[in-house]
Each structure stands twice: as C-alpha cells, then as structure tokens.
Write a structure and sequence with these properties.
Layout: E1 3-10, H1 16-24, E2 27-34, E3 37-45, H2 46-53, E4 60-66, E5 84-93, E6 100-108, E7 114-123, E8 134-137, E9 141-146, E10 154-158, E11 167-169, E12 180-181, E13 188-193, H3 196-207
Parallel strand pairs: 1-4, 2-6, 7-10
Antiparallel strand pairs: 1-3, 2-3, 4-5, 5-6, 7-9, 8-13, 9-12, 11-13
C-alpha cells in the first residue's frame, strides 16, 4: 500500500478554547502517539485530513511535522528528518452536525505488525433474495493483525450462495498473505432472514398461542 503525505502542526495550546479557535480556522485538533514516543498535540487542516481519508480508513500516513524538533535537542541543522508514519486510530465527530472534532494518530513502524479493524464488503447477491430474503448484518468489520502496508482496505465476503435461514461466519472470509484475522472463526457475520411480514405474522401467532406455564407456583381456583 502506498503512503499518503500529511502535514501536521505541533501545538502548544490545549483545551476547549484553543480547540474551538482551531476549528474556526478550518483545522482539526489531534494527538499523535506510539510505542516509545511521548504523545504530541497536533493540528491538521480539515481538507488535508479528508483527502487522506478518501484513500481508506487504514491508509498509511507519512507525517510531515511542522514545528517539532525532529533531530532532538542540540541536533545539527539541516539533518534529514527521520520518516514518521501513522494510521488513524480514531476520529471524533460532533453527535449532531457530524463535524470532525478531533483525530488520534497512532505512529507505527512499517516493519512491525499492528492490529486494525477492516470493513467487510459483500460480494454478489444472495440466492434467497429471490424468495424475499433480507440480508441482516451482525457485524460489518473484523480485527486483523499485519504489517501496516499489508492491511487491506476491505475484506470481501461472497454472499451469493446464501438462502433464507442460512448465515456466514468469520471462517468464510479469506485474508491475503501476511494478514491474520483475530476474530473467532464461528462468529456470525451476516444472515439471510425471512421477509419482515412473515416474521411479524409468526410473532402474532406466538402471542395468540397457549397461556404460558407458571413455573414454581399454582393457579388459584375460582
């Protein structure tokens, strides 16, 4: 997977007030962190972040940090910056306006494995759809372990053989070389269920059935 360059600005001011002022200027406050690294408060242009995320949630970001002392205290000027790579760990959105409020970046070593969520993408049309079946998802993503460059943007799941009453589990997924799926193989991903009208009718019949048995008690006599 190719890396996408992203310019981030080190910031000294933190808190709600400075964060609001950043958003008013079209910037998103955030933080970067990683194993063996101290967390660093940053900001990134909203447009740049959106452009990077258009390549997928697991895109590898090559960070260009502005304002950070990359070569350490007393380092020689002009020394080449060591490349810094990161993946998006979390994006916080406004609950109503869906505006980006904050971003967490996890710095990674391209040679070491990390864990990351991968979206499941259905391929094909279930055979049972012709009989009125409806796809019902139990989960739309799984966690995988791989080197950052090997993490796929999606995992495809062939649903074309599904009939009403059948389901597919994690075992039906095929991961590319170098990628390990960490979920239990029998965890259900998707099922093909009967039409809602039939299910509603079945529920009504159940309600009109015999009176439930009272366990641990007895009916009073009239």
């Amino acid at each position: 997977m190719d890396t996408i360059k992203l310019t981030v600005h080190e910031r000294e001011e933190t808190g709600d007030g400075p964060a609001r002022r950043l958003r008013a200027r079209g910037m998103v406050p955030g933080v970067t962190y990683g194993k063996g690294k101290d967390p660093m408060a940053i900001s990134v242009a909203l447009d740049d972040l959106k452009a990077a995320m258009a390549h997928g949630h697991n895109v590898i970001l090559e960070l260009d940090v502005v304002g950070a002392a990359e070569d350490g205290k007393g380092g020689a000027k002009g020394r080449a910056k060591a490349p810094r790579y990161a993946v998006v760990k979390q994006i916080q959105l406004h609950p109503i306006k869906r505006r980006v409020l904050h971003v967490d970046l996890h710095e990674v070593d391209l040679g070491l494995e990390i864990e990351a969520p991968v979206i499941i993408e259905a391929v094909g049309t279930p055979a049972g759809v012709a009989d009125g079946g409806i796809i019902e998802w139990e989960r739309r993503e799984v966690t995988v372990k791989a080197r950052p460059a090997d993490i796929p943007p999606v995992l495809e799941l062939d649903v074309s053989r599904l009939h009403i009453g059948q389901h597919l589990s994690v075992a039906a997924l095929s991961a590319p070389a170098g990628v390990t799926i960490l979920e239990e193989p029998d965890a259900v991903l998707v099922a093909l269920v009967p039409p809602r009208v039939e299910r509603a009718a079945a529920g009504e019949e159940a309600e009109e059935g015999p009176e439930p048995e009272v366990v641990g008690g007895s009916k009073s006599e009239e």
